Amino acid sequence: MKQGDSLAVIESPDIGNAVSDVHKAQADMIAAEHDVKRKKALYEAKAGPLADLEAANDTYRRAQAELERASKKETLLRIGNADPVTQRYTLPAPVDGEILIRNINPGVEVQGQYSGGATVELFTIGELDKVWVLGELYEMDFARVHKGAPATVSVVAYPDKVFKGSVDWVSGALDPNTRTAKVRCTFDNPDKLLRPMMYASVQISVDQETTLAIPRNALLRLDQTTAVFVETGEANGYVHFKRVLINVDEGEGSPFLIIRKGLEEGQKLVVNGSILLSQNL
Fold it and tell me: Phi/psi of residue 48, each to 5°?
């Protein structure tokens, strides 16, 4: 659909009323203008009071204001090629795009503001070649997501397909109720597979960093502490281990935990079965 194409034809008595209001306002202004000229002539000939001339001027200004109001209303209604004879209003498409939502059907009554009704959204027009996906960003990740970051999205309708896009906007404020920030990603949609109001799962690539980490399975909880078993070497045909208390970041959902304190790079850890070693302590 192109801009200016007809969306609907609405039969509206408001069009006839608007045209009638303009004609009446024009007649009232002409009459007020004539009255001003008469009162001015009488006043200059000292045959009429100043109060009559002032009242005539006030009436003329009111008539002028009413004509401006009626003309603007008529112009507004005629934007869609309204016909004052048939009282039909052709609603044009304001932009290029596709009709995504239609809330009217042939024969349905539409009440506008001038008829005392509520504002009704008749059509929703948009482009599906590119779509926005809105997500919620937790406060702990707020500083790690930036505009331009790569993003992928998957939807239930196409479980085996992954769509690639990028972040184009991150809200500058958090929702006070959910403590999350809105993030918007843009995706190319040439096949129009992504549709409005779909539920989607979004993954966003964050800033990469090199840090010391261990497999989650290596972590052992003993009372109120967290520890791992580190290999210390071989003696008498046995491999020896020692327990090392560590401090890790468990806030991430990845299979690896970032080490804050307690280990050094290159140390060998027990990944599976460390609970058995703890029973021998």
Answer: -150, 150
